Amino acid sequence: MTSPTALPVAPLTDAEVRVLREDFPLLTNSPSVYLDSGATSQKPLAVLDAERSFYLHRNAAVHRGAHALAVEATDAYEEARRVVAGFVGGTERELVWTSNATEAINLITYSFSNASAGRGEDAAARFRLGPGDEIVTTEAEHHANLIPWQELAARTGATLRWIPVDDAGLLDHEAARQVIGERTRVVAFSHVSNVTGAITDVADLVGLAREVGALTVLDACQSVPHLPVDLPALGVDFAVFSGHKMLGPTGIGALWGRAELLDAMPPFLTGGSMITKVTMESARYLPAPTRFEAGTQRISQAVALAAAVEYLQVIGMERVAAHERALGQRLAAGLAQLEGVRLIGPAPGTERVGLAAVDVAGVHAHDVGQVLDVAGVAVRVGHHCAQPLHRALGLTASTRASAYLYNTTEDVDRFLTELAGVRTYFRVGSTR
User: Fold this and answer.
1) 88 HSE (CA, 13 A, CB side)
2) Is residue 3 part of a domain?
3) Are strands 275-278 and 283-285 parallel, antiparallel or unpaired?
4) 82 and 38, same structural domain?
5) Quick check: 142 pLDDT over 60?
6) Which residues, other chains included, contact 103 with Cβ-Cβ below 8 Å and sequence gap of 6+?
7) Are 430 and 424 in contact (CB under 8 A)?
């Protein structure tokens, strides 16, 4: 008996989105169209209420004290870890709380640096880098997944190499086969570009890394909020993401890593709560994830992030992804029709998330953003913390519209309408 063919998941309808928007106080109280979720998302009441409820009813230090309130706080904190880890296919042992994805990447690089300096047990040897070793990243990376690797190379004497992009800003996978080689120890890359909206062929890069025994680090900031993501199934060794981009609060992010790797890594930050024994001469550390969570933690933020995950799960990430795929295609198709507007990244009809960046001929991105802002459309302008990518495209800045589950087709159309008038406003490209 054959299995039935899976039916395609239907995108959210505009009517459904309007109902969802009632959960977002800022959106219901503002006439503006918010198309800057790639930078930070808006927060539903469920998330705001979860953080407030924690402070009202369970506020205490976690993993300290034996009184009932401390136990309740610890239970809430660890339950949040279970919920968020499960959202990306992991377990509690594999999820480390951080302040954001940037800190998570720095945690990895500083741990590798400590291992390279001889810290850690014998198992930490696999993280040691030195002259002759190579770290590979890509020309499309957010600075947060580039600069920490630059610094690690500088501290250890390793060489930093990168996979280039093509004329559309997409990764050159053929070139990747030349860049990733027998000296490669780490390959770090983004799942989804925060500039082009392109979805990386993770399996291809993971396969190339595995052939040479290199570790893989995935920047999942633009994928975990928008796509169904199973990190163990993707085959990566580490991944990072931020709460504030996925309906959660600021000040909370996560590092996911294979448990055996996390346990072998030397700590990054040190202090209380992550130790088993301390003498005046030395200290011994707990297993992961606790060994990476020194000091008082982001307790209420973790609880609120778990509430954000539960909100997304009720809607269903397949539907979220289908909705954003439809908005992304509407964006790309509409932008391709505008005279003097260069769409960056995948062409219309090619897979992308609900994000698109453009260059408007003759008008600086900051001026484009100002005109749109006056018209009530909020977008991101600048280099989006990706200067090398913009430089490769011959640009200093671009204008980016990024949608989320609370955006409608009407929002996209309003953006396209207002953008279409920008060159006329500045009298660029006219026949006069």
Assistant:
1) 33
2) no
3) antiparallel
4) no
5) yes
6) 253
7) yes
- Under 8 Å between Cβ of 258 and 93: no
Q: What is the full DSSP assignment across 55-79?
A: HHHT-S-TTS--SHHHHHHHHHHHH
Q: For the chain, how many structural domains are there in total?
A: 2
What lies within 8 Å, CB to CB, of 195 at 6+ separation is 140, 169, 344, 345, 357, 384, 386, 389, 390, 398, 400
Question: Considering 260, 285, 313, which residue would you say is the last residue of a domain?
Answer: 313
- Give residue-wise pLDDT tens across range 178-198: 999 999 999 999 999 999 999
Pairing of strands 355-360, 377-378: unpaired
pLDDT digits (tens, 9 = 90+) for 14-36: 999 999 999 999 999 888 999 99
Structural domain span for residue 131: 51-313
pTM of the model as a whole? 0.95
CA atoms within 13 A on the CB side of 28: 12
The pLDDT tens digits of the residues spanning 158-171 come to: 999 999 999 999 99
Asked if 19 and 77 sit in the same domain, the reply is no
Contact 218, 189 (CB under 8 A): yes
418 is a domain residue: yes
Distance CA 26, CA 22 (A): 9
Closest CA to 344 of 185, 193, 145: 193
Angstrom CA distances, 157 to 133, 166, 186, 347, stand at 8, 29, 14, 40
Q: Which residues pair with 239 in a beta bridge?
A: 218, 256
DSSP one-letter code for 428: -
What confidence tens digit (pLDDT) does each residue in 374-417 have? 999 999 999 999 999 999 999 999 999 999 999 999 999 999 99
48-65 pLDDT per residue, tens: 999 999 999 999 999 887
Q: Which of 61, 385, 392, 420 is catalytic?
A: 385
Catalytic, 385? Answer yes
